[in-house]
Amino acid sequence: MKKYTVMAKNADNQGKWFVIDAEGVVLGRLATKVASHLRGKYNPAFTPHVDTGDWVVVINADKITLTGRKWDQKTYYRHSGYIGGLKSITARKLWEKRPEDLVRFAVKGMLPKNRLGRKMFKKLKVYSGDAHPHEAQQPEQVAV
Q1: Average pLDDT over residues 81-99
Q2: Contact status, residue 60 vs residue 129, Cβ threshold 8 Å
Q3: Would you call 129 helix, strand, or coil by DSSP?
Q4: What's the burial of 5, exposed, middle or buried (CB within 10 Å: 0-12/13-18/19+)?
Q5: pTM value?
Q6: What's the order of all strands across the beta sheet hosting 55-59?
Q7: What domains appear along the chain, each with residue ranges and CATH number?
Q8: Backbone CA torsion sign across 84, 90, 93, 99
Q9: Which residue of 18, 54, 133, 134 has the smallest Cβ count within 10 Å?
Q10: Residues linked to residue 57 through DSSP beta bridges, in sequence order
Q11: How many CB atoms are closer than 10 A to CB 57?
């Protein structure tokens, strides 16, 4: 009997939809769960160089928690490209301004840094409240 390794192909991925409620969940634990679903790591046909992941909708992003003193000590940076153009914002101020971005930044850091990672990241939808416009896809609820 011939033994071979099964490699997933782009056409094989059906792409299910999942909803994850972020209320009261620690940001890092939420991000690992979301990144795992986006990559498709739980899928038996997981192949690192193929997008075998699913679509993920995160609701209640404004109700996440951070441990320790991260609300005031964790800093997010961006640069304009000009000299002296480094801007920084703490996690608390970012949460007050755009709470969805806390989840997006955490998940993006856990995905591959290449074309495939950017493609996976587009399948993440984050919302502040508990309502989302993806009910037509009949997403499954995932516990964190």
Answers
A1: 97
A2: yes
A3: coil
A4: exposed
A5: 0.91
A6: 124-126, 55-59, 17-21, 140-142
A7: 16-66+99-142 (3.90.1180.10)
A8: positive
A9: 133
A10: 19, 125
A11: 22
